[in-house]
Amino acid sequence: MTDTTATPDTTGKGGGRRRLVISQEQIVLIVTALLAIGFALTLSGFATIGNLLALTRSVAILGILGIAMSVVVIGRGLDLSLVATMAVSSAFALQLMQHGWGWPGAAAAGMGVAIAIGLINGFIIAFVEVPALFTTLATGFLIFGLGRTFLLDGVITYLPPQAETFAWIGQGQLLGIPAPVIVLAIVALFVQVLLSRMTVGRFVYAHGDNVDAARLTGIAVRPLTMLEYAICAAIGCLAGLVMAASTASINMQIVNSTLIFDVILVVVLGGVSLVGGRGGVLSVLAGTALIGTLLNGMTIMDLDNNIQNIVKGAVLLAAIIVDNRLHPQDEETARQGD
Amino acid sequence: MNATNPPESGTVILRVENGSKMYAGVHALQDVGFDVRAGEIHALVGENGAGKSTLCKSIAGAIRLSSGRMSVDGQSVNFQRPGDALRAGVCMVYQETSLVPSMTVAQNLELGRERLITRLRPLNIKAQQQLQSLNFHVDPTVLVATLGTAQRQMVEIARAAYHDARIIIFDEPTASLTPEEKVHFFYLLRDLRAKGLGIVFISHALEEALELADRITVLRDGRHVVTQDASTLTREDLVRHMVGRDVQATHYGRRAGSDAKGKREKVLTVENLTMGNIVKNMSFTLYAGEVVGIAGLIGSGRTESAKIVSGALKRNLIGGGSVYLRGRPVRYDVPKQAIDDGIVYITEDRKLNGFFETMTVEENIHLGSLATKKGFRWFVSGRQRRELAGALAARLKVRAVSAGAKIIELSGGNQQKVVVAKSLIQEPAVVFFDEPTRGVDVGAIPEIHQAIRQLADEGKAVVVISSYLPEVLAVSDRILVARQGRIVEEFSAADASEDRIMFAAIH
Q1: Which positions fall inside the ABC transporter domain (chain B) (predicted)?
Q2: pLDDT tens profile A82-110
Q3: What angle do CA B224, B203, B75 make, to 5 degrees?
Q4: Domain A23-32+48-326 classified CATH 1.10.3470?
Q5: Interface TM-score (ipTM) > 0.95
Q6: I need a labelling partner for B386 at 20 to 30 A (CA). Which of A50, A58, B186, B444 fits?
Q7: Could you tell me the pTM of the whole model?
Q8: CB pairs under 8 A between A and B
Q9: Neighboring chain A residues of B363 at a CB cutoff of 8 Å
């Protein structure tokens, strides 16, 4: 049997679906490069070191949040409470500093709050089996409300002046590179190793790809879900700390801003599909680079907020259309050759 | 090739000449000729990827041929969309039914023909008449969601007839039907044939094609191999045409000495397993080194029992019966616990919950190892993955385009082998196979059967749940028959026959 069967199986089939191999993140990177070249040629202030540093610095926090979000999105989840978690946990850390805590202790406590929130989110989603969308939408309000009521003194929490060391992660720089960008790089590296080199990361992809198969394969899906949301919240808290350090305060009104949608935008844009199991850290970085370049260029052109929103919306729509072309999910093509 | 058929058996309604379909430069169909006559049942057979679905979809207007001619009643046609085909009288009934579950049967029949305002009463009456004329016992006012697979299929057929279809194409219509339902379905097809309709049906079950069809067309690798009267073909002919070589039916079970039960180690004992209305007092015992086949109708509680034992489902908390693994009572909440104890369940639906479609063959297999206590590593090593997964892939003869091939690029048989490998890498002592060769190409079936045999030879306790009796007979040392949630009969391989099993499963 061994020698005779070699022919019929392999032929015909696999070749049928071989298409142009180009990933969404590559497309996004190419578009970003073209855009950057275009801006560099047409806008006088764009291609300066100072501007490029300002550009990366301005999107660093968005990038960190995007990477946080990508961990749950790859696991076929969604964390709409991410910005609330970020604001409450980092404001709590700042408040502890005001009360005389050292910054490492305060940051750890804020991180602890964030991880607890993440674990609760994960628990509700995995064990109570409420869809992630509803869970995190509800916990987002809860976190905001409870944080404002029980943890925090005011809407704006200021960084106490004595916390200079801590302020470095927002305001400092190393070899000319702004500290937020360095934090982004470290987070990106950490999550990249986690997702692609560590078994836990492979489990996250398996979870997002096919939950039922992951469960039958023997992956402990429910604790894994809790871990995903905890990691997401912890990185979110880090983003909040960077934000607090760079502006020397954290304003709870950020929870009511559109930041959460910007986060989802950079995640989806780069190719971390909401279907789960697809994309990675590089996709988020690509998405962040594109948005950063666009926003920066538009700022230099002095376009108002409404136009910027129109462009953002159009770019997201274009990304989703490209994604649909690249990863067709409909019955007709998915079953081709069956 | 059409010359071999007597011309008097009906006028040709539809004809495809030199039909070709290219996907990204590769021929899914190449110069295929095909025709359907009035009042005939025409079976279309071939391995997975042979182009059966592609051909039928192009006839039904769901896809367009890259080149070639198609004619209906001698008039050249070029269907742009399914609606065009429907107007020309060609209707396709897909595997996944295309009914709207939240609508009633009558509304589904009317679907696509509604006026601006549709009154329900006349609609229901019309639907009732239509259903009765076909002898279908389905209430037109119930929601489709509440119907079983067989009844949904009836509604699909009724809809086709309702739209005055002259050609109805069925894509593997019998795959999810129980034997009685099949009998009824065949009766319906013959009835439609008597009314002068042309029936095309795609099937993997060659016996069905031979029994039912007037003519059979075999496709292989997108090419037309042969079209002949069914009466002039045998099963062996068909397999040879499909595969391009001879495949022998082999018996893998132990012919002699299979009643040496007493000497073998008792691995797993299931007593009075009960879950809701599906599993009722299921009891059986598994011995090391033995393949146990479980036959029975769909819905007889076989899959559920296997899932309960392997932790994927939970039995009743009180009065749920007991499961003993080597004498120790066990009750698993999640599959992970069962896997750590050496019990694995290999799914009947690999697309739904078998493999990870975004991953490669090796990644899929290796994940099985990583998910066990013994195989867990904090960091993934590419070298280890290649070694471990490669060994398993080789053992099961997985044939992929390349080592890094994505699993979705593989044929059904190779995908199934990967899913099996993913479980075997977990070094189980008890293996449950659920429909191990469903949707698997003919050439790969014996290889999977050999792998099952090999497991038993290595001293594992193996269970094969299958609705395909020849398979149960071919692989089993001992055969259990399940009916209505319990085991009702046990045969040794020597005593079993299709008739006896069927008798036990139904009565």
Answers
A1: 14-246, 262-504
A2: 999 999 999 999 999 988 888 899 999 99
A3: 50
A4: yes
A5: no
A6: B444
A7: 0.77
A8: 160
A9: 202
